[in-house]
Amino acid sequence: MYSLERPVRGQSSSPKDRLGRKRRTVVSSLTEDEELTEILKSYSSNKVTTTKYSFLSFIPKNLFEQLHRVANIYFIFLAALNFVPVVNAFQPEISIIPILLVLTVTAVKDLWEDYRRHKSDKFINGLFCEIYSRKQQTYVDQRWQDVHVGDFVRLSCNEIIPADMLLLYSSDPHGVCYIETANLDGETNLKQRQVVRDLPQQGSELTPENFHSRIECESPNNDLSRFRGYMEYPSKARVGLHNDNLLLRSCTIRNTETVIGIVVYAGHETKAMKNNSGPRYKRSKLERRLNVDVLWSVVLLVIMCLTAAIGHGLWLRNLKEASFLIPDTTSPALSGFYLFWTMIIVLQVLIPISLYVSIEIVKLCQIFFIQNDVDFYNEYMDSRIQCRALNITEDLGQIQYVFSDKTGTLTENKMVFRRCTIAGVEYPHEENARRLEVYEEDEAMGCSHTLKSRASAKSLSCKSLSCNRSSVSLHTLTGHSEGEEPPSPTLPQQSAFSSPLEKDIVPDPFLVQKLNSLSSPLFLLKDASMELTYIVDFFMALAICNTVVVSSPNQPRHVQVPEVSCTPLKSLEDIKMLFQRFGLPRFSTLSPPHTTESPRSFTRRLFSRGKAHGSWKGEENKMLHLTLGACSGLGNSNGAQGPPGEPGADELIYEAESPDEAALVHAARAYRCTLQGRSLESLLVELPGMGSLAVRLLHILPFDSTRKRMSVVVRHPLTNQVVVYTKGADSVIMDLAESPKGAEQSDGRQGHIREQTQKHLDNYAREGLRTLCVAKKVQTSTEYEIWLKRHAFAETSIENREELLLESAQRLETNLTLLGATGIVDRLQEEVPETIEALQRAGVKVWVLTGDKQETAINIACACKLLRSTDQLLTANCGSKVSVILLFKIICPSSKCVPRGEAAEGTSGFTLVVDGRTLDFALQEDLKGDFLELSRRCRAVVCCRSTPLQKSHVVKLVRDQLRVMTLAIGDGANDVSMIQVADVGIGISGQEGMQAVMSSDFAISRFKHLRKLLLVHGHWCYTRLANMILYFFYKNVMYVNLLFWYQFFCGFSGSVMTNSWVLIFFNLLFTSAPPLLYGILDKDVSADTLIKLPELYKSGQNSKAYLPSTFWLTMLDALYQSLVCFFIPYFANAGSDADMLTFGSPINASALLTILLHQVIESCTLTWLHVLVLVGSALFYFSFTLVFSVVCVTCSPPTNPLGVDKLQMSQPLFYGVCALTTVLALLPRFLFHALRNSISPSDTLKAALMDQLNPENYCRRMQRWNQTQAQSKARGLVINVEDLDFKIPDFILPKEL
Predict the structure, then answer these.
(1) How high is the pLDDT of residue 527?
(2) Where are the beta strands (DSSP E) in 449-584?
(3) pLDDT digits over 720-739, tens only?
(4) Annotated binding site
(5) CA 1110 to CA 61: how far, in whole Å?
(6) Chain centroid to CA 928: how far?
(7) 748 vs 528, 753, 755, CA distance in Å?
(8) 682-687 and 691-704 as β-strands: parallel, antiparallel, unpaired?
(9) Residue 870 CB neighbour total at 10 angstroms
């Protein structure tokens, strides 16, 4: 085995060449080449190490990391400076205590986190797998950490893949393997992988000794969806490698007995580990503001030290031959310079060293409370909120703009087939609509149909196999916290997109009747057979144009395609005639058959279940009857069982990669167009009236965001023609639906179908349905062979493979024949309208960025109350840049279109709707300013048909230009860029995997959780942290000023009136615990009130708790309190013989009591825990000083504190001075709060007072509050509207512009 990364000669250095300058060459580890063996010894293994430290590197490495924080460097510098005799202020040993304590606490926290990572690494590296041994000539169990690149690994069902492997063998006869990627991206649906094509030992179990091929592939990267390379056989023949051949580390083998692969990437070079970025770290807005205030503190410190230095120099200059001075040749200027550094050491507490550690502790506690909030727990998904970013909790309380995806974020992402149009005829599926209404009513009453269905899903268990090893969740690869337990291997896995809501589709009776006419003599009529051809092709496309995996609980592997032996109702010649009439003149639309029965009774009779397998032959004599055996189960998605030997329809379980695919396959199944099996080269499809047919699968052209469609190329089982079935976005398919050349009659027919289908699509969009178009194309043998040669070249290419495959697909998907379209309903999640309304009341502007049609987006915006009935709609559908410029000029010629006051509040009655093409022009450099100004003046903005790149550009534009706090929320991979750009990114763990979650700062399961996350926890986190930071600045400045005032009475000598131990411990220990409790548990308003009064959130948006003015007022208050705490004891001891420490003792005690009681005044919550901490801090100080004064004789040279505090505490004057000082120091702040709260109370205070009312008074006050808020807004709107010169109606720019 070896893996050699070497440059490739002649390789292009173009940026488009994603392969880069290196390739990786991999051969078998069984090679006997000595040179390759040496490379093997030097190459890294599969051992994974996510720890940052080792036993020897912990201290130096952790210290180096902590030195990246400027504050730590500053305090280390001061500690070292205190060892210089000329400038030292007190004992050098004491000066290092604060920084040692801070560094130690941080190091212990880092060590604990690293130890948890070490335990996780040890568990994963110790897992076992089977590796081929050259000595024993068989597969033996070895640990994951012993796997190397080039080793052959054999895995069984339910085993986890230890490294990235190239699939060389599968026990499946068609060379197919199924994997579950839940550990990697959260998706529970099965994905198909296939063995490398044209292997010499294809079909038989691989013998590693006979493997002599060479693999050339790309260097390790983090792209989970891409793998490129080729395998060169000993015959020098090459075959292309792609992502379908690669088994990724941490995925799980499912529904396959045995697979064998060769390792190409191991350990940290696997794609899973390349994507393991760990927790996200961002700088919050409050932290940026904190850094500014720390700089102001530095400026204040320098000013105080300069003042002391200048004063000391002047004092020395004015003293001549003083008897108390030690003779010294140092000049007053140099002495002042030395004293500057001495004062830096003395006043170092002004820079809050413990603040940074305290902030980290408080944020961890805030995250703990958020994660353990039961309101965020989703019982259905058994998930809770995840906090992946550890240091931006306070940003949740300052959000001003929310950018939301639609599908899966605002909606359920449970795609349910609602209705369809085929060949220009619309089928409303009224009974299916009533089913959805009944389901919603049952769900509202508490019936959980979906939960029962998901809990009983059995698709992913291999019950008939002996699977010795269970599946576990690899937390180190998925970013889950270690505290989360892995799922039990005995529990049944959930089948994605398979709830009764999604499966139990009620067919349209008129469409069923037309399908049943396959058995009628009338089906050979020209017009009827043409329409029936469209219908059968339509459902054929729904059934096979996908990548759905079909599984069965009674079979160990995927349902294979058996030999079809059943006899269809009609002869194959008649069926062929039906499909060959595509070239006939356009048919006239058949009128739906009429019936005297009600739709419900007719449907029930039509959809009665029967035993199909016993009536196929007999039903040939009942061709005019609707209850044919082959179609008797049409109305039940679980249908009747098929003929003997075939899997029962009830037993089939579909594993789809997206909910759209699942909805369409379930819809086709409801009409007995059932996908029964899939293999690498063929599909088994049951069609009504024809039985089961084996369809040869030639190619799959997967969906991508560029083409916005997917196609399958098949050999039609009846006509033997090469047919391309395509489904995709209506905006794309309608453009590609051109009629074949030379078919004039067909052109007329297709023109009519396109016209009618477009009308139906517009109606679907207005109803809020997701639309999808279906088309087909028949290719001649010559055309297919020409295309196949080019496509084969693209598949085997390494360079520019994606571009070549895209060109190949686009070359094939032209001149399509439009078959019809589907309308899929995606219901709103619960409480979405209430959440959006609450956010808007909170002053948050909500933008919806979606890729859906404009009509669909507007309908959803109305349903979720983003667009109100009183709003005026500004719709922009521009085809050119000139029209966009004209739009801005018409709407806002002089910035009077919307009141400025309303723009600031975001309450104007205008909603802007922009399509993707217009957005492209609006985001250009010369137009984005106008676009931003217009959107800023609108209450809401909806961007439809937007791409993932456009979403991120919009978020970045608003964030950077308006300088506001932004939040982006989404659930899919197309939302990742938007989530990462926003200040706060939130992922929803929904139906589309975990890509958005893994890229987010916070992950929730439902959109409604955003309401409490922002309005409650965001508000609490911001106010608590802001108040705690201000309190830290206050207490540090207040105490430092005491030392500064003393310099005026000691000749600015740098002396202090207290011993150095108390000086160091005062802010580090005596007053450190109360602020922590203040920042963790303080609660200004209850959660219920914050939910009911979203307007309270605006205080955080405006940073009212931490404004620059608030900071400086706090500094002034600290200055006043320090003056009181210093001069009252000074005047009390005036004229006495009190020494320095005796004078300082009541100052320290008064300062401590003032600081602690100051917090009591500022706190909104006072519990027994607060009392315990506050009293404990005071007792700790007095106990320490008392013991210190009793036992310490030489602890603080040159001063001697022996007996000082003991004597002071025995005198009444000490307590009188402390009490008077404390009262006078706190009196102004107390009076300020009393006057402000009485004269002009804040909204937060009013809400807090409402919490104290009894329930009846509380409800009345709450109603009165809401009425007052509504009336004030209404008055403001009336006044502003009257000031306008004109009123803008609903404005839509003509498309031709």
Answers:
(1) 54
(2) 549-551
(3) 889 999 998 888 888 888 65
(4) 405-407, 661, 703, 727, 770, 850-852, 945, 951, 971, 974-975
(5) 39
(6) 27
(7) 17, 9, 11
(8) antiparallel
(9) 7
Distance, CA of 279 to CA of 293 (rounded, Å)? 28
Q: Which helix (H) or strand (E) holds 534?
A: helix 526-544
Cβ-based neighbours of 120, under 8 Å, separated by 6 or more: 50, 475, 476, 482
pLDDT band at residue 564 using 50, 70 and 90 as cut-offs:
very low
Calpha distance 385→381 (Å, rounded): 11
**CA nearest 366: which of 1013, 1029, 1080?**
1080
User: Cα(599)–Cα(1275) distance, rounded to whole angstroms?
Assistant: 52
Task: Say how many CA atoms lie within 13 Å of 1149 toward its Cβ.
Answer: 25
- SS3 per-residue string spanning 825-873: ECCECCCHHHHHHHHHHCCCEEEEECCCCHHHHHHHHHHCCCCCCCCEE
pLDDT averaged over the chain?
76
Residue 702: helix, strand or coil by DSSP?
strand
Q: What is the 3-state secondary structure (H, E, C) of 48-69?
A: CCCCCCCCCCHHHHHHHHHCCC
The answer to whether the CB of 864 falls within 8 A of the CB of 1041 is no
Dist CA 1297 CA 1293 (whole Å): 7
pLDDT tens, position by position, 51-105: 888 888 888 888 888 887 777 788 888 888 888 888 877 777 777 887 888 888 8
Mean pLDDT, to the nearest integer, of 987-999? Answer: 72
Q: Please identify which residue in the block is written with the tokens 């205030």.
A: 293
Residues in CB range of 729: below 8 A, 6 or more apart? 708, 709, 771, 772, 773
Sheet holding 238-241, edge to edge: 2-7, 22-27, 214-218, 229-232, 238-241
Sign, Cα dihedral of 489, 491, 492, 495: negative
Q: Is 1227 strand, coil or helix?
A: helix
Q: How long a stretch of residues is the chain?
A: 1297
Taking alpha carbons only, the member of 831, 1244, 1254, 1255 closest to residue 1020 is 1244
What six digits make up the tokens of 355?
Answer: 């603040």
Residue 1259 near residue 880 (C-beta atoms within 8 A): no
User: Tokens in use for 1071?
Assistant: 């007053």
Write a three-state SS string for 777-809: EEECHHHHHHHHHHHHHHHCCCCCHHHHHHHHH
The whole model's pTM is what? Answer: 0.71
Q: Which amino acid is at 1236?
A: R
Q: Which residues have a catalytic role annotated?
A: 405
Residues in the annotated binding site for ATP:
405-407, 661, 703, 727, 770, 850-852, 945, 951, 974-975
Listing DSSP states for 1074-1117 in one string gives HHHHHHHH--SS-HHHHHH-GGGGHHHHTTGGG-HHHHHHHHHH
Task: Find out whether 262 and 168 touch, Cβ atoms under 8 Å.
Answer: yes
Q: Are strands 817-825 and 770-779 parallel, antiparallel or unpaired?
A: antiparallel
In angstroms, the CA 820 to CA 771 distance is: 11
Encoded tokens for 343: 């004062």
Rounded CA gap, 880 and 903, in Å? 28
Amino acid letter, residue 927: L
CA of 609: how far to CAs of 145, 639, 650, in Å? Answer: 56, 7, 12
User: Which segments are annotated as binding site for Mg(2+)?
Assistant: 405, 407, 971, 975
